[in-house]
Specification:
This protein is mainly beta and about 550 residues long. The chain has four helices and 41 strands. Strand 36 (about 480) and strand 37 form a beta hairpin. The two termini are about 40 Å apart. The chain is about 5% helix and about 35% strand. The protein has a four-stranded antiparallel β-sheet, with no helix packed on it. Strands 2-3-4-5 form a four-stranded antiparallel β-sheet, with no helix packed on it. The chain has a four-stranded antiparallel β-sheet with strand order 7-8-9-10, with no helix packed on it.
């Protein structure tokens, strides 16, 4: 989704630099090469660097993998995946690589899984996850996980193009040979697809479990062709890692009509001495689940929600709500004037108001709440840190004949809209972030927050306002590091205990990524990829990796 918010928003939210700054240790430019103009246009440098075997690994948005010296940033080797140049890529991002037993694994935008010798950068094997396609609808953007002798990957599937999209199959391969060992398909019955695992996964090797976060079934905003709850879409699911067999599944949204993917990695936590999984959602819900059974460890209620007024659509009558575990504002209050006038033209009955022909306000919007940047866990304090957005989305369903006759989605709306054909469904759709004519969000401030959730109670320990964001936090040594705000170019450090901002430093571009940390020759480094985001209008783009040492 392209986000169009005026750059003056950054100036209005920027804080003053204060406190003791870290020291810049080195800077590296990836000189990433896109396969075509489309990929260059939508690129986002979202990688988290990985230290293993004395090398620091970075992956570019176009699947060039680079090994760096951790102390100096000097390049040691580079591998180019040679992406197909004929695909119309929906996304161009890569969030990291996985290293195990001297082998580096990563997925590609043209739907391959690749294994490299981690020391030399030479190819060990390369497998295709599906048929070679002319479109860029089926990709891999998050790193795989390795459990014992298997490497397990999901996929990223484009939103809203058609009802019958690719299936969201999760696949496990022999990590030595690349031989397919098992598959698991979360796709609902009906004329549909997706329900794919595009977000980062987690694994508990000791219990032979892999935890899969799934997205919505296609198309996002009309579910009449996929009746029922769409059981394994919008869920966190535990699979037996060795076999792919289902162990348990917990659904956070029934019959999703809002693009409320589970975008955040399932976090492995300890809940009052018990192994658990924390689930962070776009709606701003925190669920704590028993890691072995999936049973909620904090109370969850099924509450009535609004009905759909769209013919052929049956919205779920109820949705799951945590009794304690809301980490972002969920009630929309418009700013006075233009925003309030436009708001009153829309359908809005609170959280889970279904899409409509007149236009529905969705809040929190489809960006979140929590997104793919996920949470960061402080086991000593029992806190889970998350960057929570508070941006509303306006969604409108457009009858098929009207949509198709308009041409390229031009239905008289102002510029900045995103249109989806939802081919095969009786409605196309239009959606936009709810902004005033100056590009400022129509809800009251703050438009985002860094929040600390007490994992044992679900209550907020603290929250600190931040601008809207797309990246995620890093926790280490009593500090929370974050650089993921959309329009600012800052890296900040917060106190894990209080949320106080301790310092901020300037970056060459926004860091829509998750920082990494490592210790090298007795010094702690914080390293961040600062590259901006191609789907954010006006964002400065870069190819910079920066490493800092703490005083």
């Amino acid at each position: 989704m392209r986000i169009a918010i005026a750059l003056l928003l950054a100036a209005s939210l920027a804080g003053q630099t204060s406190g003791i700054h870290p020291e810049l240790a080195w800077t590296y430019h990836t000189h990433a090469t896109p396969p075509n103009a489309r990929a260059a246009k939508v690129a986002a440098f979202e990688a988290t660097p990985v230290l293993a075997g004395g090398l620091l690994y970075v992956i570019t948005p176009f699947n060039q993998v680079i090994a760096l010296d951790p102390g100096s940033g000097a390049e040691r080797w580079r591998f180019d995946s040679h992406l197909a140049d004929y695909r119309d890529y929906s996304e161009a991002s890569a969030r990291g690589v996985t290293v195990s037993d001297g082998v580096l694994y990563f997925g590609t935008l043209d739907a391959r899984l690749i294994a490299l010798d981690a020391r030399a950068g030479s190819l060990k094997w390369n497998v295709r996850l599906g048929p070679d396609q002319q479109t860029g609808e089926y990709q891999v953007t998050s790193p795989p996980v390795v459990v014992k002798d298997l490497v397990i990957t999901g996929s990223s599937i484009a939103d809203n193009g058609r009802a019958a999209m690719e299936r969201g199959t999760v696949r496990a391969f022999d990590k030595r040979t690349g031989t397919l060992r098992w598959t698991w398909d979360p796709t609902p019955a009906g004329t549909t697809g997706a329900a794919n695992a595009w977000a980062p996964m987690s694994a508990d090797a000791a219990h032979d479990l892999v935890f899969i976060a799934t997205g919505s079934a296609s198309p996002d905003f009309y579910g009449g062709l996929r009746p029922g709850d769409d059981r394994y879409a919008n869920s966190v699911t535990a699979l037996r890692a060795s076999t792919g067999k289902l162990v348990w599944s917990f659904q956070v949204v029934h019959h999703d009509l809002w693009d409320y993917d589970v975008a955040s990695r399932p976090e492995l936590i300890t809940f009052r001495g018990k192994p658990a999984v924390a689930v962070l959602t776009k709606m701003g819900h925190y669920f704590a689940l028993d890691r072995l059974t999936g049973k909620p460890l904090l109370p969850v209620e099924e509450r009535p929600v609004p009905k759909s007024d769209i013919p052929g659509e049956t919205a779920s009558a109820t949705q799951p709500f945590p009794v304690s575990g809301v980490f972002t504002e969920q009630h929309f209050v418009p700013r006075a004037g233009w925003c309030a006038d436009e708001f009153h033209k829309l359908r809005y009955e609170g959280l889970f108001t279904p899409p409509s022909v007149q236009g529905t306000l969705e809040f929190p919007g489809n960006v979140g709440g929590a997104n793919w940047g996920s949470g960061a866990y402080d086991a000593s304090r029992g806190l889970l840190f998350v960057a929570a957005d508070r941006l509303a989305t306006v969604v409108r369903l457009i009858p098929r004949a009207t949509f198709d006759s308009a041409g390229h989605g031009d239905t008289g709306e102002r510029l900045g809209l995103e249109y989806g054909r939802q081919a095969g469904a009786p409605y196309g759709m239009a959606r936009r972030t709810f902004l005033d004519p100056d590009g400022i969000p129509c809800n009251e401030k703050p438009w985002g927050a860094m929040a600390a959730i007490d994992v044992a109670t679900g209550k907020l320990r603290w929250e600190t306002p931040i601008p809207p964001s797309l990246g995620g936090p890093l926790y280490t040594d009593g500090l929370v590091f974050f650089g993921g705000t959309i329009f600012e170019t800052k890296l900040r450090a917060f106190s894990a205990a209080t949320g106080e901002k301790l310092w901020e430093i300037d970056l060459p571009a926004s860091a829509n990524s998750v920082p990494a940390t490592y210790i090298w020759k007795g010094r702690r480094y914080i390293v961040v990829c600062a590259g901006g985001h191609g789907k954010v209008d006006g964002a400065k783009l870069s190819d910079t990796v920066l490493a800092y040492t703490l005083p």
